[in-house]
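Annex B. Sample input.
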Amino acid sequence: MTKILTVCTGNICRSPAAAVLLRAYLGDVVRPASAGTHAVPDGQVPEPMLAHLDASGFDARCHRAHQLTPATVREAEVIATMTVAHRTEVVKMAPTAMKKTFALGELATAARLGVPLEGADVKARISALPAALQPLRGHLTAAGIRDIPDPYRKNAAAYAKAYSMIDEDCQTIARWLMTEPR
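Annex B, continued. Sample output.
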């Protein structure tokens, strides 16, 4: 099973939501996991984010925050961070992960651009993703990568905005990964 790791700061809002949504949109071929660069020990998803997930038919109540470690980075085939700063932190921790670490917005931009991915199925296309995007790194960055803002301890509008951005990006990425090459 293909492992996609999503990363944010506390591993209680953005990255768990992204992991739940990627699993929902990509199905059983992926095993999304999430971690935080400064995880809240045993932290749970706050009620405002749970409410957005619930409204979409998804549940994250069993989630407990995990600290990002070199081992979790090594185990992932693709790493999707919620901000460019998180991407930098992952790469500082494990420089060899640079080729497989992208901001979620970077992946969504590649999907919107229709970057071709090789592979007969979703699992193969996920595995091919890092190599396909390497030559385009500068172009993707120039296209403007939008960070997912941290809603933690903010108002309902902040949670709604973050959830909407994550959901939109995850749906866009899933459609791209599920589209068979021509």
